[in-house]
Structure formats: C-alpha cells, structure tokens
Amino acid sequence: LTGSRDRDMLHLHHSWTPNIDRLAEDGVKLTQHISAASLCTPSRAAFLTGRYPVRSGMVSSIGYRVLQWTGASGGLPTNETTFAKILKEKGYATGLVGKWHLGLNCESASDHCHHPLHHGFDHFYGMPFSLMGDCAHWELSEKRVNLEQKLNFLFQVLALVALTLVAGKLTHLIPVSWTPVIWSALWAVLLLSGSYFVGALIVHADCLLMRNHTITEQPMRFQKTTPLILQEVASFLKRNKHGPFLLFVSFLHVHIPLITMENFLGKSLHGLYGDNVEEMDWMVGQILDTLDMEGLTNSTLIYFTSDHGGSLENQLGRTQYGGWNGIYKGGKGMGGWEGGIRVPGIFRWPGVLPAGQVIGEPTSLMDVFPTVVQLAGGEVPQDRVICTVKNLLALVLNSQHSDHGSVHFVSWEGTTWKVHFVTPVFQPEGAGACYGRKVCPCFGEKVLHHDPPLLFDLSRDPSETHVLTSASEPVFYQVMERVQRAVREHQRTLSPVPLQLDRLGNIWRPWLQPCCGPFPLCWCLREDGPQ
C-alpha cells in the first residue's frame, strides 16, 4: 500500500491532471474553444440553449452579471429549450449532477419554475446555486463582508440617533417622547444582530444540496460533498446503462473556497488551488472507471470543458486562489479577453473519433447544442434564433476548416481575427486584472469604448498584445466590415425579453427561499451518504 501511494504521488507530480490528460490523448482537443460569456450564469445558459445569453434575458443592465441568491426570482426562462429537453423527448434518460446556478423559483418557494427538472432533466442532485467563498466564511467574500459593513454602518447611525435623542431628552434640549428613542434603539440592536448573523444566514440560504425537488442537506457538509457527487454519478450510470442517456456532471471545483478532501490537501506543488484541481482530476478518473466497469466506454461520447477562465482577482497577498490563464490575457468577468472565454474543449468517443486529433479553428460551447441534438436524432428548434448550427462531430470527422463570423471574431481564409468594442480598465494601471474588486465592470466609467475597435490576429497573437490598425494590416477594413455585418445581423434579430439578472429578479426574497424546515429554521440532513 505504501509503495502504491508513492507511485501515485510521483505520477501526480509528473502530470498534474493525468485523467484529463488521458481524455485529451484518447480524444480530440479543441484548442480555440470559446464560452459565450466570461461568467458562469450567462455562460451556462448559452451552453444549454445554444443562444447568446442576451437572447434569453440572462444578462443585466446594472452590473449584476450572475444570480446573487438562491432565493431570487431570476433564472433561465421557462420558454427556453435546452438540449436536455430535446434529448428527453427523444427517449434519453437525462441527469444533472453538481452545480446549476440558473435559478430556482419564481413566485413561491416550491414552484421550482427554473429548476433543472423544468428544463429537460429527469434527475437532479447538487447545488441549485453555486459554491462561494461565503459558504466557508472565507475572507474572499462575495456578499457577506459587504452586507456586514452596510449593517454595521446603519447600526452606528441608528445608535448615534438613539444616544442623541436620549441626551436631548435628559437635558431637555430636544422635546421628544421616549417612543422614537425606544424604536431607534431597537432597530440598532436588530441591525447589530443582523451583522453578526448574516454570514450564517447566507450559508443556510445558499449552500445547500437538493435531490430533485427535495432539500437533502442545509447547510452542506463539505467534506462529504465530493463522495456524494461521485456516488450519484455512478448510481445514474448503473440505472441507465441499458438505454440512451445524457448525464451533465457539473463540478463544484475549482471555485473558491476550493473545498478539498483531506487526502488531497497538501499534495500539489501549486498550493490549495492545485490540490483542488487534482481532486477534480481524480473525480474525472473515477467517472471514467465507472464507465469502464459498466461496459459503457465505447458507446459513450464524453465532452469536457469549463464555463469560463480563471478568476485573477481571487487572491490574498501573493497566494492565487482563482487559477491562472497562461499566455491568455484577462480572466473571469473581463468581457471578451481570451483569458476569460477561451476554455478547454475535449471530445472522446473510442472507435468513432480519432485519438490525438487537434482542432485549432474557433469553436464554441454553444456548438454543443446542435451537436448533441443532431446526434440524438432531434431537430434544432425553428421557432427561435439558435446562435450556431455547427456540428462539432462533423467538424472533427471531416477535418474541414470553415470560414465564418461571429459578433466579435471572424475566421477567414485560415486566419482568426478578433475585435474588442469595449474593454475593462485594469486596476492598478498596468495590471492584468481589476485587483481590489471582485470582478471587472462591463459598463460605466471603468470601461473603455474603442472606435475603431481593437483588432487582433489570434492566429499569430493569441495573447492579444499587438493591436492592428489600418496602417499595419492590409485587410483591416475588410475584417471590420465582416465583423460589423455580423453585429448588425445579431442586433437585427434581437427581441426584447425580461432581464433575469436585473435588480428586480436578483434580490433575495424570503418567500422564495428554499427551506427544509419552518422558515427561517432552515436546517436538515436527510441523507447520510457515504462514510
């Protein structure tokens, strides 16, 4: 046993992600694979529907670019069609295990209008929201620290008001009854209590596990979560191995607070982030082993990707907790910079797809929609704009390059051109991210509008360091015209839809809060799971 562990350790140090590497070696790598957004909620919406998030309303006009609460009313609209819904209609068993983060309820805590089961999945086990630093009371906080500061400020204001009224009353300088004194003091005590308990309230409100419509853990027991996820994946595969199935495994890794099992802590040379990545890679290996044991390997198409790039602002001191994006500029939440939207793309299907092939032309997470729909014998919806018709399997099998355009890039005559109309202002000046903020803004004073747009040749300059101009690039105007034409066509086909991430749909509403007891006593453990 000792020798076996030593070999595993040497193997992991030699190859940080041996199981993901094995997927890539046995399958096809997409080296210019692009997400539709640089943040999770809109990117996931686009992935599932094949439509840019602006078409489904999974955007905001005020800066809320992801869903902020489980108990908010925003989410993937019920009239959207996911590839899971189409595959279910074609007789596939459909399951989602892991993170959802596309909304839950609309009008009551039990209507589940945005729930995965209302979007084509037969089975769901996981987080209806997302893992956050606040789930573990981290210093890297999404909401808790800001809310504590606001509540403390209001407490101080009301406490000062109460003390002033008391002093004025006792000295007869302020003719006032005791009623406003008592009320201001009571409110001050409530605000102080709120600032003290808000962290625990967030943990209970957002950090929970559900099986279908039933809450199983509130709050989650993090050291049990990874075994529970793997157990659920194995159970789904065993139940459905004799028929067609679609299983979407949406890892909670590698997102702060980087919850990692004890046997992976300290193993990586890259700190806690590396530990968490290695644990995720081990999970990939466990899933591949299950497919082998159930005789499903040769009949199963596997797709591996990420919804966006690494989060550069997630750092404390010199320790990076949000990952890194190599040669690519920018990261999570930074508009269209490659570091935020260029993600891994791997397909594996033994005996069908050629092992070791590399596809370098631009592809999108949205391309998965027509790919799996056509593979299952379904039809892409004709009653709405689908933002891609590219079948990735046909691309891989035919190995043919295609000239095409999008709203921010053009692949033309073997060259991939990229334009930026708006970019965030990095802080401090000269930095490669918006340090001091949770994420870069996408509008207002902290962004730059470019006229003419910034142009890059990604084929020669994937790091986006050399801005091309009409003086330095002979086909500058032709490229700009093709991109502008794509933008005009995109805008022409947009229809007004409710914005799901605006303030009205993105504030916490107590009556929408999922709770496994009488609100606000939201605590339960209904499934003990693996020991």
Automatic annotation (TrEMBL):
Pfam families named in the record: Sulfatase, Sulfatase_C
Occurrences of domain Sulfatase N-terminal (ranges): 16-377
Keyword Transmembrane carried by entry: yes
Cofactor(s) needed by this chain: Ca(2+)
KW Calcium (keyword) present: yes
Listed GO CC annotations: endoplasmic reticulum lumen
The protein, known as: Arylsulfatase L
Organism from which the protein derives: Macaca nemestrina (Pig-tailed macaque)
